[in-house]
Every structure is written in structure tokens, then in C-alpha cells.
Amino acid sequence: MTRIVLLAALAAAMIAAPFFVYPVLLMTVLCFVLFASSFNLLLGYAGLLCFGHAMFFGTAAYVTGWLLKTTGLSIELGILAGGLFAAAMGLVVGLVSVRRSGIQFAMITFAIAQFVYFVLLQAPFTGGEDGMQGIPRSALFGVIDLSGSLVFYYFVLGVTALMIWLFWRIVHSPFGEVLKAIRDNEARVESLGFRPERFKLLALTLSAGMAGVAGGLKATVFQFATLTDVSWNISGEVILMTLLGGIGTLTGPMVGAGVIIWLNDHLAQFGEWALISQGAILLLVIIFFRRGLVGELSALLRRRKTGR
Amino acid sequence: MATTISPAPDYALEARGLTKRFGAFAAVNNVNLAVRRGSVHALIGPNGAGKTTCFNLLTKTLQPTEGRIVYDGRDISNMRTSEVARLGLVRSFQISATFPHLTVLENVRVALQSGKPTQWQFWRSLSAIAPLNARAMELLEKVGLADAANLTAAELSYGKKRALEIATTLALDPKVMLLDEPTAGMGHEDIEPITDLIREAAVGRTVLIVEHNLSVVSTLCDRITVLTHGEVLTEGTYAEVSANPEVITAYMGGVDDE
Questions:
Q1: What is the pLDDT of residues B193-243, one digit of tens each?
Q2: Cα separation of the two ends of chain B
Q3: What is each CA distance from B99 to A184, A302, B55, in whole angstroms?
Q4: Which residues of chain B lie closer than 8 angstroms to A180, CB-CB?
């Protein structure tokens, strides 16, 4: 009951938000909420630390952008194509990495991401250092005009809500239950007749696809795609968002994404100090809020409940 | 008892010439072991005798250097753990092996999904596996955990975690259960109920158990194989084995837990 009330309140707040906050900032937050959730699916529910998640995000941004620029594809198909391309990438990356775990998995994904960065830097269609400019916001389903900034915000909100629902569905599915068991005790799951590496492979594919949708969406928000979106800074930032919000909590990384994007926006005027303050925040979180903002909050609420 | 060479259907699990070397060191050396169908068979021996290595070979956690393992008349030497598990040869773990963040019911339900297509269905809600709940509750009742079904596994006491593991293992309806020191690290008050549970679970199945606690072995097991230095020292009933002077020598100053 309280959950429905909270969800309704959140929906109302998000619908009203563009009248009070700069819509581009809100849309950036939404893209990163989605991106952080995709990362959370992998780290929080499959126990895999991917240190190159930006490769899915950034590559999909280029794929969506290129399709929208060069073909007359409607916007939702462009974004979907970006997501599918990223999912296929996730599958390939998974085939070579998913048998490894921990730091080895992190390093393999990092190496592949660096390789992808180099390929995109050299590929002619990306525009290299200049990035890909002038990505059009073509009509939704080929008919609904999205040129108004308010309308476009609601489109982004809708896509994000749909994908977050999908994320929630995966986590609370029969597959999700096995995935959580693997995160808790992989050897035991194997001893019960499952092939853990196949579950991780599917999780990575789904996570990459979600990250791809986030990247495609971001390309349409800013109407350009750049190498920054594929860079290791973004891979690092999504880890920071997840840690800040709370690993393994459904909403934590979303909150983390919101906080980081908002901070980046406000601290941008201080230049290098933005990075230093990010580092300081991360340290504070690691020292004082190990479970992240949402993790600590829910632990506090639980203590209250049982303490009575 | 004569050693059988031909595949005898009255043995559920057999190891023939099983050897595992780590470099020059043979942790398990030419072990022959035959577990009679429907029996509870113990593998004992002083620390460092190679029990755990032998156990890990039989459960396919380790690959043998030499030798063959035959389960139910089928050569499983080159199979993986998950494969033999689906065939009905299921192992337990020495350290507690529950899924701490899942509820007690979910722990068992995960195992019930083994071999079923639902395990891949990421697009369906949990109602797709709600039909498994009844069977999961049945198994929990069997081990006395029905009341705890909605607690997370992390909240259970050590003894109850062990009971949950048995229920999870039973979810696969195994023909052969391999138990790795099921009473390790347990207080006296927990040992008896777990021993009773294993005895109940063993009905209609074959059990191979690695165990330190000799009083558990004496009450639970039909046959005992004693390992020392990676080799079989002797095999027999508890009375036979415990009267064997070689066994007494091997254990002298060794395990004396009870």
C-alpha cells in the first residue's frame, strides 16, 4: 500500500519536475538512472564487477545516432537498435569473460572497453575527436512530433519508466531468483544442477542491452554522441553512482545517479574541484555509509521496526 | 566381501583406481571404493588422509589424474558437477551453503527450478514458479522449517541452516547424496537432530558421508572406509573397523573430537 502511494508520488513529482528544473538536467539524470540500474543488475544481482560498462552505453549512443542521422528510422526504433547492438556486444564480451570473476572479470572488461574506445576513435562514422553532431529527434512511431522540449522530456521519462519496469521484472523473475542465488553462493548453485556461467552470460547481455538503451536515449537528448560516453571515466562514474546509492538495492543506484549528475552540474563551474569533491564524497561513503545512501536508510528503518 | 570388478548394479557409486596428484604429491592414490545402493557409507581418516580430495573427486569438483568414477552404471569421470547433479548425484558443503539473502522458501524453490525451463524466464513474474511453493513447503516441513519459510536464510541458527541445506538438496530428489562433514562446527545440541534428519533423508537413497565425529559415524553408517595417506587402509562395519589395530594406530594422537 505504502509502496503504491510512494510510486504515485514519485510519478507525480517526475511529471511536474520540468516546470521547476531545467529539463535537460532532468533528462540527463534519467539516462544515468537507467545506466546505473543496468550496472546494478550486473554487480548487485549477478555479482559481476564490469569495469568497462561505458562501452555499451557509448557505442549504443553512436549506433542510435548514426541510424537516426543516415536513415529515416523513427526514434524508438533507433534507440531500440542501439540497445540490441549493445546487447549483442554484451553477449560477445560475456563469452570471453564470464568464466572469470572478481578482479579478473573487471580487468578483461576494462581491456575490451579500451579496445572499443580505440575502434570508435578511429572509425570514420563517429567523427573521431569531434564526436557525432546533429542527431535528429525524429518522430515517435514515425507520427508523433517530439520537437517540443517538454514533449521530449515526457518521452524520455516514458522510456526510462518502461526500462526500469523491465529491470524490476528481471530481478523479480524465476531467472532473477537463480541469479541472486548465484551471487550468494555460486558453487552451491552449480552443485544443484545449474550452469552458473550461462546465467551470468544472460545477465550481462540483458545489462548491456539496458545500458545501450540508456546510451541511445542520451544521444537523442543531447543530439550528439562523443567519445566521453565510451571513456573509462563514465565506466568509473557508474561504479561511483552504484556505491553511493547502495549495491544490491533496487533504487540505490538510481538515487546515486541523481546525486552524482546533480553534483556534476553544480560543481562544473569549479573545474578540477568537481573531481576532487567527487573523490571526497566517495571516501566519505566508503568510511561512513558502506551500504550506500539507500542501503543505510533501509537498514535504519529496519532497525526502527525491529527495535520496538 | 570380494572386490567386484565388473559393473555391479547393486553399487550406486564406484571409484576405480582413483588418483589425484598435485605436482609430485598424490593426495589420493589408487583408491577403490564401492558404495552399495541404499547404504549409508562413511569415509573417515585422520587429518590429511585425503578424504576431502577424494570427496571433491567423487562430486566432480576436482578432475582425477587417473581412474574412473562410475555412477549408476554410467561413467561420469568426465562430467561436470551440474551434469551429475541433474542425474541425481548431489553434494553438500562443509561450510554452510545456504543463499543468505533469499528467504528459506526461496532457497528450496531455487533448487526445485533445477532442470526446468522456468530458470531462464526473466520476463515472467514469480507467479510462474508459484506452483513449486507447495513442494518447497513440503520439504521444509520434513526438516522442521515450515514456520521459518519467510525468514531470510541469514537469520537462521547454524543448525537450522544445515537443516535448510538438507531440504534444498532433497529438492533434487537425489539418488545419491554426498555429505561433506555435515556436523562440522556444530554444538552438541544440534548434532542429534541433524543426524536424525540425515537418517530420514537417507531412506530410499544412497549416502556417502565424510565425517570426523565417530559417534555420528557409528550410529548412522552401514559401512566405513578408512583412508590414510591418500590410500584405503581398510573397509568394514563400524565394529570391524574400530577393532582394527591399524586403524587405531593411524588415529593415535589424531582426531579425538568426541
A1: 888 889 888 899 999 999 888 888 888 888 999 888 888 888 888 888 888
A2: 30
A3: 5, 20, 22
A4: 99, 101-102
User: What's the rounded Cα separation, in Å, for the pair A7 and A65?
Assistant: 32
Of B214, B218, B258, B255, the residue nearest B49 (C-alpha): B255
- Would you say the C-alpha torsion B121, B122, B126, B132 has a positive or negative sign? positive
Q: Taking the domains of chain A in order of start, what are their residue ranges?
A: 23-231
Residue of A175, A176, A191 with shortest CB distance to B85: A191
- Residue B113 has its nearest CB partner, among A169, A178, A188, at A178
Closest by CA to A32, choosing from A308, A234, A305, is: A234
Q: What is the ipTM of this complex?
A: 0.85
Give the H or E element holding residue B110.
Answer: helix B104-112
Q: Which residue of B has its CA nearest to A183?
A: B99
Contacts with B102 from chain A: Cβ below 8 Å: 177, 180-181, 184
Using an 8 Å Cβ cutoff, are B162 and B194 in contact? yes
Q: Which residues contact B187 (CB under 8 A, 6 or more apart)?
A: B158, B159
- For residue B252, the model assigns a pLDDT of 64
* Residue the block writes with cell 578483461: A108
Q: What is the pTM of this model?
A: 0.87
* Closest CA relative to residue A50, chosen from A128, A110, A138: A110
- Under 8 Å CB pairs connecting chains A and B tally to 103
- CB within 8 Å: B93 and A191: yes
Q: Which H helix or E strand runs over A111? A: helix A102-122
**CA dist., res. A74 & res. B7, Å (int):** 67
C-alpha count within 13 angstroms, C-beta hemisphere, residue A164: 19
Count the neighbouring beta carbons within 10 Å of the beta carbon of residue B154: 12
A174 with B128: Cβ contact below 8 A: yes
**Of the partner residues B85, B128, B129, the one whose CB lies closest to the CB of residue A192:** B85
Cell numbers given for B95: 561450510
d(CA A47, CA A20): 38
Chain A neighbors of B101, CB-CB under 8 A: 180, 183-184, 248
Task: Please tell me if residue A184 touches chain B, with a CB cutoff of 8 Å.
Answer: yes
CA distances from A122 to A128, A132, A223 (A): 6, 13, 21
A174 and B90: CB-CB below 8 Å? Answer: no
Which residue among B81, B91, B110 places its CB closest to the CB of A177?
A: B110
The answer to whether A26 touches A228, Cβ cutoff 8 Å, is no
Tell me if B128 and A173 make a contact (CB, 8 A cut-off): yes
Selection from B186, B183, B185, B222 nearest residue B202 by Cα: B222
Report how far residue B11's alpha carbon sits from residue A272's, in angstroms, rounded to the nearest whole number: 72
Q: Which of A173, A183, A194 sits opposite B123 (nearest CB)?
A: A173
Q: pLDDT tens, A199-236? A: 999 999 999 999 999 999 999 999 888 888 888 888 98
